[in-house]
Design a protein that fits this description.
253 residues, alpha/beta, eight-stranded parallel beta barrel, 8 strands, 43% helix, binds SN-glycerol-1-phosphate
Length: 253
């Protein structure tokens, strides 16, 4: 089954997913990456996301190949720009940064990437990407040259997501930015959840099991964990367990 259909099917069942985000710049060696891959495999992680707002290393291919050699989980590119297209992955979040007004990230980079992606087997996942203010400036806000959506403008966020859905985007990704000071509030997640019917991805600053639980409870279909695992990979055990427990409670795994 393709990735989008899997996400839709899980959403229909009320089942949640967890993705581990790997920023290629933060991978110092194969042993460290292997530990995270093993933890993901042992703890019912659903997906790997790979990418970053600014990738300065050339190890994207090796990282994907190490994941794929060790675990049978879909690897989804989470690109910061058109240069981060790697055919060895399974899918690509084709992100339109709809919370911003930078034409390059609404359509510009896409024009460059589209013909390259067409010559790969990557599953294209059209995604409305929304940055939400999270305190101090994040790399993604700076690099994207956009102003994140204010974190108390629930209606604005809901209308933005709705417009994205009406434009045909198949996923909405609410992101506070990697290592965000403040994760996205339950109220914000809930406002967007009620506005759209497509699967909702939430990430940025989720660094405790309680924050993961709160995001699931508020309506996230998939949570993304990156930065916290760079500090302490073993945190994945307790965070992934929240997703597992959720799915157990509703009787599906
Ligand atoms: C960042 O949403 C992702 O774009 C994940 O955020 O790295 O803070 O977990 P963290």
């Amino acid at each position: 089954m393709n990735i989008l259909n899997l996400l839709i099917q899980k959403q229909t069942l009320g089942k949640k997913s967890i993705a581990v985000l790997i920023d290629p710049d933060k991978v110092s060696d194969r042993v460290q990456l292997q530990h995270l891959i093993d933890l993901a495999s042992e703890n019912c992680v659903d997906f790997f996301l790979v990418g970053g707002s600014l990738v300065t290393t050339t190890n994207l291919t090796e990282i994907i190949s190490q994941i794929k050699q060790n675990v049978n989980l879909p690897v989804i590119l989470f690109p910061g720009n058109a240069m981060q297209v790697e055919p060895a992955a399974d899918g690509i979040l084709f992100l339109s940064l709809i919370s911003g007004r930078n034409p390059e990230l609404l359509i510009g980079q896409h024009v460059v990437a589209a013909p390259v992606i067409r010559n790969t087997r990557l599953e294209v996942l059209p995604t409305g990407y929304m940055l939400i203010n999270s305190g101090r400036a994040t790399s993604v806000a700076y690099v994207s040259n956009t102003i994140p959506l204010p974190d108390d403008k629930y209606s604005l966020a809901a209308c933005t997501a709705l417009a994205g859905e009406m434009l045909g985007l198949k996923l909405i990704y609410l992101d506070a930015g990697s290592g965000a000071e403040k994760e996205i509030s339950a109220k914000m997640i809930n406002a967007v959840r009620r506005a759209v019917s497509v699967p909702l991805i939430v990430g940025g600053g989720i660094n405790t099991p309680d924050k993961a639980q709160a995001a699931l409870q508020a309506g996230a279909d998939m949570i993304v964990i990156g930065n916290a695992l760079e500090q302490d990979p073993n945190l994945l055990i307790d965070i992934a367990n929240k997703v597992y427990e959720w799915n157990e409670r509703i009787g599906v795994r």
